[in-house]
Design a protein that fits this description.
By secondary structure, this protein is of the alpha/beta class. Helix content is about 50%, strand content about 20%. The chain is built from 7 helices and 5 strands; from the N terminus they run αααααβββαβαβ. It has a 5-stranded mixed sheet, with helices on both faces. α2 (about 30-45) crosses α4 (about 60-80) and α3 (about 50-55) crosses α4 (about 60-80). The chain starts with 7 loop residues before the first helix and ends with a strand.
């Protein structure tokens, strides 16, 4: 990825502006066709593309920068991860709460074990610290990435059971059919599937 000499304060202002708009749009759950429309608009928007153009050089490269930098980091940032986390207007549900919603109370989250691609932590039973799991979470659209990360980790020697948790919103709910499909796939792969609603 090309690195541009965008001043830090300008980059933060643009990202803060984008993250506010993205929160208003419920970006995480937005279909690709709608995202494309917003990329086009932001590229030509004087507050986004207009401010970046002197540093990036070409309008078509602005869209690439948007997708490869702030957009790629947005989900992680909403969960408090990464350099742009402080710029998020509406943070997502904390992972500790996602764990409770997915598995019930009685688990502690080891944030020291946080992995970011995909977002994943180690969790332990409060009443039995020997009972551990990996807990990975992402929006529904990334179920396949969660499953693949779990399979790859286990193939590489990770002996812990994996919980792959897909997150939806009140606006865009996971369908009952999709839940059943995810559970079947997870069972076939020896994983635990969970679904929770953010918010």
């Amino acid at each position: 990825m090309t690195k541009y000499a965008i001043p830090t304060d300008l980059e933060e202002e643009v990202v803060r502006f984008l993250y506010k708009r993205m929160a208003d749009l419920n970006w995480i759950y937005l279909p690709d066709s709608e995202r494309t429309r917003h990329y086009v608009a932001w590229t030509s928007d004087p507050d986004v593309g207009g401010r970046l153009l002197p540093f990036i050089g070409k309008p078509e490269k602005i869209r690439t920068w948007l997708k490869d930098r702030p957009m790629k980091e947005y989900v992680r940032a909403t969960y408090g991860v990464g350099k742009w986390a402080p710029l998020v207007a509406k943070p997502s549900t904390p992972v500790s709460e996602l764990v409770v919603r997915a598995l019930g109370p009685g688990w502690t989250v080891d944030l020291e074990a946080l992995v970011i691609k995909p977002l994943c932590v180690t969790i332990r039973r409060e009443d039995d610290e020997e009972t551990e799991r990996r807990f990975a979470w992402a929006p529904m659209r990334d179920f396949k990435h969660l499953a693949w990360a779990a399979i790859a980790a286990q193939a590489g020697g990770d002996a812990l059971p994996w919980v792959i948790c897909t997150v939806d919103s009140f606006v865009r709910k996971i369908t009952p059919e999709q839940k059943v499909t995810n559970e079947r796939i997870a069972k076939r792969l020896g994983l635990i599937s969970a679904h929770v609603t953010d918010g």
